[in-house]
Amino acid sequence: MPDPRPPTQPDRLPPLSLRQEQQRKEEVLTHGTPSHVPSIADAIVIKDQEIFFLSERDGQVPLGGEHGFGLYYHDCRYLNGYEWVMEGAKADVLVASAAAGFMAVLEYANPNLRMQSGEMLQKRTLGIKWERILDGQTLSLYDLITFRNYQLQPVDFQLAFTFHAGFEDVFAVRGMLPEKYGIRQPPAWQNDVLRFLYEGADGLCRALFVRFSEALLSRETQTARLHLSLPPQQDNTLMVSLTVAEAPSVRELQDRVHSRHSIRQVQDYQRATARQWLRQYTQVRCPSPLVERIVERALGDLQVLQSTLDGDTYFAAGVPWFVTLFGRDSALTALQTLAFQPDIAAQTLRLLAKYQGREVSAWRDEQPGKILHELRVGEMARLNEIPYTPYYGSIDATLLFLILLGEHAAWTGSLDLFGELQPQVELALAWIGRYGDLDGDGYVEYQSSTGKGLINQGWKDSGDAIVNRDGSLARPPIALVEVQAYVFMAKRHLAELYRRSGDAGRAQRLEQEAEALRVRFNKDFWLADKQFYALALQAGKQPATVITSNPGHALWAGIADADKARLVKDRLLAADMFSGWGIRTLATTELRYNPIAYHLGTVWPHDNALILAGLRRYGFDQEALRIFDGIFSAATHFHAYRLPELFAGFRRDDYQVPVRYPVADHPQAWAAASVLHMLQHMLGLQADGFARQLRIVRPLLPDFIHRLELHGLRVGAATVDLRFERAADGTLQARALHVDGELQVVTVPS
Q1: pLDDT digit string, tens, across residues 579-624
Q2: H helices within 432-550, ranges in order?
Q3: What are the residue ranges in the chain where pLDDT is below 50?
Q4: Which pLDDT value is given to residue 450?
Q5: 724 by DSSP, 3-state: which?
Q6: Beta 92-97 vs 526-527: how paired, if at all?
Q7: Which residue in 21, 204, 382, 640 is deepest, having the highest Cβ count within 10 Å?
Q8: What integer pLDDT is reported at residue 452 of this predicted model?
């Protein structure tokens, strides 16, 4: 297999020393937030394939200051400023929507304007509709602006458009690495095309081309001026297109500039593609418009976040900071959507297997058999200035890779993918025993490879996330509670696959290892005085005794003893953990609690979805219903029903609306997928594709949902349509409406 890593250019810059490597890793890895830029909570976000765009609510991108808005491609922000004015004034935005994912629609009205003639144009006499469409095929942003004159007399006015192109690496945008390496050429006009050019130190040239459909009145350095005339009750449409390109040379950049497309053709193609993509998913139908909108938003976000690498499709983690392949996020998102679409899971598994670790590298935290954490392809990655080529600093991605493989087999009823990836499975199991367990105590742990600070490698990976009750940072090596649960779950899944493939001996050994881990875990991680599991075992096997959401994942994995699971349930739903919107990452009673700290008190939808699944596993149905209600209710308060990556941990009673986390990704993959995952587990869907059976165990939904249908649910080679309907006694009844193929549907009532 050829090396899939992006090429580096070691001849362009001297290699980093060991000390420089440690300092650089500390800069980019030990951070409390994903970005140091101001809030993007209200950003309008659109994405298509690998290109995406963020703007403020008025559609503009500020020309100055630190911010995260702009046009991005391949970890580079090409455009970092884009503003337009009418006669020197900004239009007033009335409404903005990016519901379609690949496009945004904004409606403006003019302010009071002093015209060139000296006359005043009264406000709200012009209507302005701005349609903004991304096309991943041509790497273009198309802005279609329609001006409508509502007056009974003609109007003439001037427009000015100004652009800035910074060509910053995404890590520079995030405020982590401000270095600049390449050469940014001055903006230049070629006829009516404004060209920005950057000659990167990594051997790639990057360019941004700006075009106008109308003749220009004047061309300044970075500004274009136009004159528009509108007859009474008439409109006029202007198109602005921005195209990004990258190539090894300037000459090749010119050859790669997009061919012209009709914007309506692009729009029609994108909508048809979105409809085709959605048809691949199990359809959810419900008389409640609210439920349908939340589910449709989740599916739409997942469609936006689908990306392609080496011919395989996967879910990028989130916009804008993590539009890339993430081992943990991509695997877990694929797992959360298995009941609705199993195909991306298979492609994700193949892709993660392709990038599996092969050697020992302290710079990339790579080890043989380890699944990557994150892959970057921008200038800093290509120069080897950051370790994401790929970076392997994730203690749980390898385990989630194995769990996803087992869950995929259960839904598809096929061992084909297991057989195909068995060499990678063997390497992953070897990694668990050799590299994952640093001291041979039977627990998978991690230890920072830098001399300064702490790099956390679980899903709570900010530098201050894993703490002690006295507020101090946990001391490595650190064995996280959820990681041991994932090991247990992975080995149970693999035991089933090995047994079905004819290797009963290997299956038995894995089952014995899982059972031994379960017994040891329930002894060593249990805090008798707190009636709860420790967050982690740290240096000297001392427990980190803070109350966190992490033990909820032990319920999802099934490693918790039944009596302990009941106590964990009670603690997770206590007032200092459950905000009313969801379970916090850290209890309000802990010293380090902060409702707007990344992992120290916020609410994460995916975290809650896994806990909900765990509660259902142990029969705690009413508690699961509280989480379902909290997260779904929170979704109704976010723009277009989009769940962000996380939100603040303030009490529901305090503000009556969830408080946004300023720099949370939105859309974000496992936040969107959490909607589907919660729905699957509330409906009690358990697939056994090998037995051609679907079990529906204790289906449960909130009282306001009286009926819900699933159409095209796939189990093995069969599909089934299901109806869930509330009976006269209030219970939720399930029945199969139609089965196509060989499938037995078994209902296990409450």
Answers
A1: 999 999 999 999 999 999 999 999 999 999 999 999 999 999 999 9
A2: 481-500, 504-524
A3: 1-4, 6-12, 259, 450-454
A4: 46
A5: strand
A6: unpaired
A7: 382
A8: 37
d(CA 493, CA 332): 15
Three-point CA angle 270, 271, 274, nearest 5°: 85
Query: What does the pLDDT read at residue 8?
Result: 45
**What are all long-range contacts of 515-520, with beta carbons under 8 Å and residues at least 24 apart?**
516/442, 517/442, 517/484, 517/487, 517/488, 517/491, 517/559, 518/488, 518/559, 520/442
Query: In this structure, which topology does domain 39-272 adopt according to CATH?
Result: Beta-galactosidase; Chain A, domain 5 (2.70.98)
Residue 511 token pair:
């089952």
At 250 the pLDDT is 86
pTM of the model: 0.93
Give me Rg for the CA atoms of the chain.
Answer: 27
Output the CA torsion sign for 254, 256, 257, 260.
Answer: positive
Distance CA 724, CA 702 (A): 12
User: Whose CA is closest to 163, among 107, 82, 70?
Assistant: 82
- Report DSSP state, residue 537: E
pLDDT at 257: 59
Domain parsing of the chain, residue ranges: 1-30+318-436, 39-272, 694-748
What does the pLDDT read at residue 449?
55
**Pair 661, 643: CB distance under 8 Å:** no
How high is the pLDDT of residue 663?
82
Nearest to 297 by CA among 579, 585, 637, 41: 637
Strand ordering across the sheet containing 744-748? 685-688, 693-697, 744-748
User: How far is the first Cα of the chain from the last one, in angstroms, to the nearest whole number?
Assistant: 51
Using alpha carbons, select from 138, 66, 144 the residue that is nearest to residue 103. Answer: 144
pLDDT at res. 521 = 98
Outline where 527-583 has alpha helix (H): 551-557, 562-572
Measured CA to CA, the distance from residue 423 to residue 686 in angstroms comes to 28
DSSP 691: T
Confidence at residue 262, expressed as pLDDT on a 0 to 100 scale: 66
